[in-house]
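Morning. Coffee machine broken again, so started the prediction first thing and wrote up yesterday's gels while waiting. Chain of 303 residues, entered below exactly as on the submission form.
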Amino acid sequence: MKKELAIIGLGKMGGGAALQLARKGWHIVGYNRTESVTKELKSKGIDPAFSFTEIKNKLKRPRVFWLMLPAGKVVDDIIFGKSGLVKVADKGDIIIDAGNSFYKDALPRGARLKRLGIKFLDAGFSGGPGGARHGACFMVGGDKKLFNYLSPLFRDLAVKDGFKFFPGVGAGHFVKMIHNGIEYGMMQAIAEGFQLLKKSKYKLNMYDIADIYSHGSVVQSRLVSWLEDGLEIYGDDLRDVSGRVGHTGEGEWTVKTAKEFKLPAKIIEGAFKFRVQSEKNPTYAGKVLSVMRKQFGGHKFQK
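Came back before lunch.
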């Protein structure tokens, strides 16, 4: 493929991916509904566009449109709306949904685009803003031939061996959804453990514990390392961190999918319920979760 594409949605994830690709010699046409964001990235090597027609004119066929948008209606509006991508895209052009969309939403989108002659991939994107900027992990669903064609793109965006194909439209988003459900459970275990440590009669330093856990222990992980970073910034008491934990759709979708499959997912369900209940019952465990979310995903603290 030609080393060029459009990235639609230039927030902390899309903007980071755009800058990483530009640094590696790609021609990136950037579009964001807030025009000031697009203009800001121009000085960093991104070719700005302020309409889909402008995007079309700046790329050669087959064009690749990479969407980095919140899940839900906004994705359909960008693709199928009155002035959406389907109004400017030609047959053979490619749309990649790299946001955390619900996997079942990918199926009708892919089918509708296929009828229009437009190709579609769903790409689960893990690694947070840091991954977008320096190398992420991709779980890609759809057509294998199309994936192979686009592999230079994923190779330049991913860490080494950090992208994999899964057959079927929606499969990439399904694998990423379950990944995020697992993430909920792992984070919850860490948070509950550190709450127990904090409650202990011993005068324990939470940063030192996170640090030793991060050096050769069985629970050594990126999550514990991110907690260690957060404790260094905010202190053992996490005084300026909210115990009210934000949550996006993936954990809830995982729980609902488990019930649909008639399979237990007690750990993930408990972790999701904890986040919902934390709105009225903030705790130190909630602070631990919030600081981890802040460190790996740039998520703002709940008030």
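The chain has a mean pLDDT of 95. Going to sketch it on the whiteboard this afternoon.
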